[in-house]
Amino acid sequence: MMALKMVRGAPPQALLALCLTCCVAPLSAAPPLQGAPQRLDDGYVPVGDILYSAEDWACLHAKNLMSVERLWPRTEGEVKIPYIITYKEMNMTMLEEAIGAWEAKTCIKFLKMEEGDKRAEYLEFRAGGGCFTVTGYVEGEVTVSIVDTCKGRSVKHEIGHALGMRHEHKRSDRDNNVIVVRENIDPKMASNFEFSETINCGIPYDYFSLMHYQDTAASINGKRVLVAKDPRFQDIMGEGTEITHWNAKLANTMYKCVDDWLEACGQTSDPCENGGYIQKDCSCACPLGTSGDKCQEFAMSYRDALLEKYSPYTSVINTPGAEVTSPGYPNDGPQEAIRYTQVMQAPKCKKAVVTFTDFQLGEEDDMPNCKYTSTLEIRTDVSVGDGKIFCGEGIKNQQVFKSDNSELIFHYKNYDFLGNGGENAYRGYTAVFTTEDIPGCR
């Protein structure tokens, strides 16, 4: 196992501490947890991928709001984080790729210390006890642990915590974007889903954030813990493996990188539009859905652009009489593993109604286990965390499904026939979308 160890140094500038307070969630009040995790020998308490010091854990349970400085200090206008490696079995390729990803997107630099370097402030990669981190810089000893099972996204995610970034799904606006299904959370992990009071510096909630959990993360029963209020993102929420535009903009705002670059580029205000920001080379970093040297060309929203890139079969169907079909129906279904969501959306006071006319995702006897086959999950409302799963020939001709309110949601997962040496010889499905009145609704 590996760990990042941060050691005491001078406190950050007041402005940076203020930005952290605005942009990054402090530890918030949380109810006592049942089945609390075991303390490590040094007093730290690992919960999921967050490592709490004994003091932080006590404050959390005393319902105190923490207001500690979490940003690494700037020295002569630069943020340089020295580090050493004492874990001899460290996967250097994995670590260097993760560090390099953050360096490429921000003004933060990680500097490997020479033997005999006696400076007091540094990161130490060493053996630890799991995949977790204390969030950001603090005065005193702070430890971040990364094990070999933390690969790719996980290492970048943990370094994000070390820089002072908290989980996306704890933001002050998270309740506008996700539903937290508390009965499905492993009690030992509950603090990773506590609400935090934050001001988010104008940076929108990002389902694809490197700092967002997947929907079943920390589940005690395999059911969803996080339900996307925009159901199009349910299957790709928390699946991002790279630092997103908004992750980078937040870090560069926290550490005043943008301010420094504006000054160096002779700009008094940021010339980049539509959520873009100026970079070290004086060009604009533009979010998905925009283009042009100043991000001035707006093609679509960031969320729509995300779906176009990462889940192109996802769609919203809102025209009565429209067909609802699987890709390639009936003779050319996908061979590779894909996932998508179809949202049948009715007007206010109308139910969404879908009537199937054909359904074949596998063999007749695949139901009800649905292993090693493509599946279709049907949810009757956004508020319904888990729906019924169908496979094989589990839906009959003229079988009807209705929403509880105005949205009926399909989540399709195509079996990886190509990767498993098979062939998708099944038709898929087709259905018709209609609506009907909700009795008593006005």
Automatic annotation (TrEMBL):
GO terms for molecular function: metalloendopeptidase activity; zinc ion binding. InterPro entries: MetalloPept_cat_dom_sf, Peptidase_M12A, Peptidase_Metallo, Sperma_CUB_dom_sf. Its EC number is 3.4.24.-. SMART domains: ZnMc. It is an enzyme of class 3 (hydrolase). Zn(2+) binds at H157, H161, H167. Its cofactor is Zn(2+). Residues 64-258 form the Peptidase M12A domain. One of its GO terms (biological process) is proteolysis. The active site is at E158. Keywords: EGF-like domain, Hydrolase, Metal-binding, Metalloprotease, Protease, Signal, Zinc. Binds 1 zinc ion per subunit. Residues 1-29 form the signal peptide. It comes from the Eukaryota. Gene3D superfamilies: Collagenase (Catalytic Domain), Spermadhesin, CUB domain. This is Metalloendopeptidase. The lineage of its organism: Eukaryota, Metazoa, Ecdysozoa, Arthropoda, Crustacea.
